[in-house]
Design brief:
By secondary structure, this protein is an alpha+beta fold. A four-stranded antiparallel sheet has the order 4-2-14-10, covered by helices on one side. Strands 6-7-8-16 form a four-stranded antiparallel sheet. A four-stranded antiparallel sheet has the order 9-13-12-11. The longest helix has 24 residues. The protein is globular, with a radius of gyration of 21 Å. The N terminus and C terminus are likely disordered.
């Protein structure tokens, strides 16, 4: 692995490309290409529409699918000309490019991933769980549980920047000896910090140490994918945390990458066709979508008649407009949070 901000722990100078990448793909184009036609078009089912009169399916270029303007852009000043896209660069270089090569090679020879390939795919699968808009919301909703390095001593008078990450941390006062109660701005910078933290922490280790297996779908079942392609399902009501979770990632319409976190390779492989079925996997992928479901089936919809049943659309002009407005205003709102005043705050104990 290369020495970089996503794979190593050491402090690095931020490096961005000469031209900022504004159209950030939170699901990579190389991944969606497996569901695209020769024109690089993909069929899309939107779970939120302004009215029920909108057709169930439409086509879209993978160049514009699963993308969000400035989703990973980092604002270091009120001036957009000084924005940084080091996260976009790091994700492409350190996560996507290695995974693209592994998936292409495994698709060509139809073999199971070896140890090194499994580590690369584990990183890719975890990042796809974290890097999407759905992942942003999951992290936002659980920010209180994120464990950050302890801060000891008296609370300083100024904001504390989380080293290298650009996260504003404001001390609120001492709660006990050696501990501070702080506020953390929940924004792009927090999201990017947590992605890196989780990748390198115990969760990343759990993903990388698990037995990853590829299963072929039967001829009668094809897999869609979505804008939140990594699916996590607790295998038991008694499961705590991520251990014993079934993790799924469609890698083509006909193949699924999966594991049971913390389980032996024999347990993982024996689950296919038993507790894990092709039909169940298809339903899970459809249900897990945040906003969009992507399919390779040609028009008219062939084999996708169950999608509106499994995941009925929400028809609301007001909600549809609000989501579009959020996307349009995202960059300005995030810049305000990152550079000026926190737009949203969440308490965390350090």
């Amino acid at each position: 692995m290369t020495d970089n901000v996503y794979v190593t722990h050491g402090k690095k100078e931020r490096q961005s490309s000469a031209v900022i990448t504004r159209n950030n793909h939170y699901v990579p184009q190389f991944y969606l290409k497996a569901w695209a036609d020769k024109r690089k078009q993909i069929r899309v089912y939107d779970t939120l529409v302004p009215s029920q009169s909108v057709p169930l399916w439409r086509t879209q270029s993978i160049k514009s699918a699963a993308s969000w303007p400035d989703f990973y852009t980092h604002s270091i000043s009120p001036n957009p000309d000084e924005d940084d896209d080091f996260t976009e660069d790091a994700l492409d270089r350190d996560i996507e490019q290695p995974a693209s090569e592994v998936l292409r090679r495994l698709a060509d020879n139809g073999t199971q991933p070896g140890f090194q390939d499994s580590e690369i795919l584990a990183n890719f699968t975890l990042i796809q769980y974290l890097r999407t808009p759905a992942g942003y919301l999951r992290l936002r909703d659980t920010i209180d549980a994120i464990e950050l390095p302890p801060i000891t001593g008296a609370p300083p008078s100024d904001d504390l920047p989380c080293e290298e990450e650009g996260i504003g941390i404001r001390p609120m006062g001492m709660i006990e000896k050696g501990s501070l109660l702080v506020e953390i701005a929940v924004n792009r910078a927090t999201h990017q910090f947590c992605m890196k933290r989780l990748l390198h922490g115990m969760i990343g280790q759990l993903f990388r140490s698990s037995a990853w297996t590829i299963a072929d779908m039967p001829a009668t079942v094809t897999l869609p994918t979505s804008d939140d392609p990594t699916v996590r399902i607790p295998m038991s009501p008694r499961s705590r945390g991520l251990k014993e979770s079934l993790v799924l990632l469609p890698i083509s319409p006909h193949r699924i990458l999966y594991t049971i976190l913390g389980a032996s390779r024999a347990t993982v492989r024996s689950a296919w066709g038993g507790t894990v079925t092709a039909a169940g996997v298809r339903r899970a992928v459809i249900r897990n979508a945040y906003r969009y479901i992507y399919s390779s089936n040609p028009e008219p919809p062939s084999g996708d008649g169950d999608v509106p049943v499994i995941r009925p659309r929400t028809a609301s002009a007001a909600l549809w407009e609000a989501k579009n407005r959020e996307r349009v205003e995202w960059s300005d709102t995030q810049r305000l949070s990152e550079v000026e005043l926190p737009a949203k705050m969440s308490r965390a104990r350090l």
